[in-house]
Design brief:
Blueprint: E1 5-10, H1 13-24, E2 27-31, E3 36-40, E4 46-51, E5 62-66, H2 70-82, E6 91-93, E7 96-102, E8 108-114
Parallel strand pairs: 1-4, 5-8
Antiparallel strand pairs: 2-3, 3-4, 6-7, 7-8
């Protein structure tokens, strides 16, 4: 079985879409006006962004992007920092090299690579 899509409610569809495309390589695969956007990853899974009001995700909620290695995690971290995004530095956590970044959509994104595999 393959995950087809994940729907995320966000207050600002355009800003969230731009952020996910710019930093995480997602591609637009459709638009539902200003209220919806459909983004796809390299495995053809889709993230649907749906406009909503007063969105509040639980503190532990996040989506994750796995990188091939420490260098890629560090490079993405540095790119975000250079662009003025407030993001704490990567750290060794649960067997991975990881950092978390808040998205414009109000949810957290984890960037990691697994260590020792």
């Amino acid at each position: 079985m393959k995950l087809d899509h994940l729907n995320l409610s966000v207050e600002d569809v355009a800003a969230t879409q731009t952020f996910l495309q710019k930093y995480f390589g997602l591609r637009s695969v459709g638009q539902g006006g200003v209220n919806m956007a459909f983004l796809s990853d390299d495995n053809h899974s889709v993230i649907t962004l749906m406009k909503a009001k007063n969105v509040r995700y639980p503190d532990s909620f996040h989506i994750g992007f796995v990188q091939p290695g420490v260098e890629q995690v560090n490079a993405l971290y540095q790119r975000l920092k250079d662009d003025g995004v407030d993001v704490p530095p990567p750290q060794k956590l649960h067997g991975s090299w990881t950092f978390y970044v808040p998205s414009p959509g109000g949810f957290t994104i984890e960037v990691q690579c697994w260590l020792g595999q």
